[in-house]
């Protein structure tokens, strides 16, 4: 039985109740975790609150050293961690390795920035006064994480937040607490002091709710749905808590008549079907210029047919199961709605058949064309392996349609015309744009959505600012 991690120790929930965690590929029990309540969350928040001053007083260089040590330990244990991640989440083992490595990379990135945090010096009116601009940590931060990337999305919050001097209470998603807890245990082995980082497993409605409401919590780093993100922001509003919200997306990809078709086809396939389509940044709407649409669709269809759907632990698995039955049903409903409105399924559109699929939540990679753009598959976020393909006449039409959406997370354009590429990059209403590339992210670049895709940035040196307050000090020298 797995435990939570509070005050540097593995603990059960106060009530002793547990939640069972099942493998989405076959329904097997993976492990149980404590079912934390508001009381467990409150206790962890108190611990993080008490640990804050000493952690703030710890030199930046020391904080960096601990995170570097942690990234080494995590890489040393990546096989065990990746295997556990595949079992609880469903993703192919190869992708689980990438996620663990990405977490380690994020730790390194912020550990490297630790000694580079700067405030400022400002000469004022006359020689008798100058100003200082100070950066200081916020205090206790809550990190609330979804199930699609349970480890890397946690890293996006912990790494800048810990380096800045904050302490944390993490609330993993209800169905993916296991790998995150192991990772946190390793961070303690790397030297994190007790109480600086705590993880409480349990439902969003109790543990999550306590974290967003508790007065000792000064900031919430949240990744998840726009629906819950709105609740987080509402709760935060009461005490003007800081929030970073990384929410839903429906990224458009535009392929112009002069784009590199083969590369764009590969990017569309990876960008849509990675993590079984359950990614915030993913190619979710495809806009093809008429001139190349037939060729593109033919090539993408051939590619999608070759994607091998299997248990994530199986040799050669390219697409694992979806994470849950409700997730699969939602995508099926979105596809059915598109078909009812006239869409044609080019490939997929059903569950795979055979004994190996019977107990899991598998779904075939799906491409649809002849789309009525009022369909849910265009208007909503599709969090699964289904891609609607639309045809457009020119760039103005493509951009207008791409931007006509409540979300603005990522976007991409494929063209050899540099002017057109840069024009589109400026006009896309999204926080990330790729030119002749897609859905690849870097710790060095700030990441975060426009519109209802979120608020604030993770990654980049910008993320540090979201975990610090800036204050001005006026010094009279005479
Ligand atoms: P979700 O349902 O919003 O849940 C996210 C987290 O919030 C979970 O840990 C959940 O706990 C918790 N939660 C639920 N109710 C809460 C409450 N009342 N108070 C506090 N916390 C609460 O999201 P999801 O279904 O796990 O993830 C999918 C969504 O995340 C998609 O919309 C996707 O686009 C988005 N996402 C965004 C990004 C990004 O960076 N922009 C990245 C990845 C995913 P329980 O699991 O216990 O309910
Ligand atoms: Mg959800």
Structure description:
The protein has helices at residues 38-57, 60-76, 78-89, 93-113, 152-164, 178-189, 204-213, 226-239, 261-273, 290-306, 325-340, 376-379, 395-403, 418-427, 462-465, and strands spanning 4-6, 9-11, 18-22, 29-34, 120-123, 129-137, 140-144, 167-171, 197-199, 217-223, 242-246, 251-255, 283-289, 344-347, 366-369, 386-392, 407-408, 410-414, 432-435, 450-451, 454-455, 468-476. With 478 residues, the protein is an alpha/beta fold. The protein has a seven-stranded mixed beta sheet, sandwiched between helices. The protein has a six-stranded mixed beta sheet with strand order 9-8-7-10-11-21, with helices on both faces. The protein has a three-stranded antiparallel beta sheet with strand order 5-6-22, with no helix packed on it. The chain has two domains: 4-247 and 453-476, Aldehyde Dehydrogenase, Chain A, domain 1 (3-Layer(aba) Sandwich); 251-442, Aldehyde Dehydrogenase, Chain A, domain 2 (3-Layer(aba) Sandwich), CATH 3.40.309. Helices cover 40% and strands 22% of the residues. The termini are far apart. It has 15 helices and 22 strands. The radius of gyration is 23 Å and the shape is globular. It binds NADP nicotinamide-adenine-dinucleotide phosphate and magnesium ion. NADP nicotinamide-adenine-dinucleotide phosphate is lined by residues 144-149, 153, 171, 173-174, 203-205, 208-209, 212, 223-225, 228, 231, 246-249, 280, 381, 383, 409, 449, 453-454.
């Amino acid at each position: 039985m797995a435990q939570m991690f509070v005050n540097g120790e593995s603990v059960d929930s106060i009530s002793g109740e547990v939640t069972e965690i099942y493998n989405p590929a076959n329904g097997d029990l993976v492990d149980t975790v404590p079912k934390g309540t508001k009381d467990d969350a409150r206790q962890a928040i108190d611990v993080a609150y008490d640990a804050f001053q000493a952690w703030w007083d710890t030199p930046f260089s020391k904080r960096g050293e601990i995170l570097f040590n942690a990234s080494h330990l995590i890489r040393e244990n990546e096989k065990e961690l990746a295997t556990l991640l595949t079992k609880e989440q469903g993703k192919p083992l190869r992708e689980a390795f990438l996620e663990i490595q990405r977490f380690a990379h994020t730790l390194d990135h912020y550990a490297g920035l630790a000694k580079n945090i700067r405030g400022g010096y400002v000469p004022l009116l006359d020689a008798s006064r100058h100003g200082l601009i100070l950066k200081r940590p916020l205090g206790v931060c809550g990190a609330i994480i979804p199930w699609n990337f349970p480890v890397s999305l946690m890293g996006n919050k912990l790494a800048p937040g810990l380096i800045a001097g904050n302490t944390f209470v993490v609330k993993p998603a209800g169905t993916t607490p296991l790998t995150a807890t192991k990772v946190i245990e390793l961070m303690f082995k790397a030297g994190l002091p007790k109480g600086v980082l705590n993880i409480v497993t349990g439902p969003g409605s109790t543990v999550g709710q306590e974290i967003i409401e508790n007065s000792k919590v000064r900031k919430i780093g949240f990744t998840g749905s726009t629906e819950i993100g709105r609740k987080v922001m509402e709760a935060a509003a009461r005490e003007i808590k800081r929030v970073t919200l990384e929410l839903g997306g429906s990224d458009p990809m535009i392929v112009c008549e002069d784009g590199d078709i083969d590369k764009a086809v590969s990017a569309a396939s990876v960008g849509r079907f990675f993590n079984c389509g359950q990614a915030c940044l993913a190619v979710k709407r495809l806009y093809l210029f008429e001139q190349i649409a037939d060729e593109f669709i033919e090539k993408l269809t051939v590619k999608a047919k070759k994607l091998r759907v299997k248990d994530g632990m199986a040799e050669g698995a390219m697409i694992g199961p979806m994470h849950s039955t409700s997730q699969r049903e939602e995508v099926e409903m979105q596809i059915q709605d598109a078909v009812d409105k006239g869409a044609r399924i080019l490939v997929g559109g059903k569950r795979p058949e055979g004994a190996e699929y019977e107990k899991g939540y598998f779904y075939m990679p799906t491409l649809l064309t002849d789309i009525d753009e009022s369909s849910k598959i265009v208007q909503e976020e599709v969090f699964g392996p289904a891609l609607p393909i639309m045809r457009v006449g020119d760039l103005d039409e493509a951009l207008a349609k791409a931007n006509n959406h409540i979300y603005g997370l990522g976007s991409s354009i494929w063209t050899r015309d540099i002017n057109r590429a840069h024009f589109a990059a400026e006009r896309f209403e999204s926080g990330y744009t790729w030119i002749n590339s897609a859905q690849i992210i870097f710790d060095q670049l700030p990441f975060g959505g426009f519109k209802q895709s979120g608020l604030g940035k993770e990654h980049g040196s910008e993320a540090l600012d979201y975990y610090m307050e800036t204050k001005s000090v006026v010094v009279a020298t005479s």
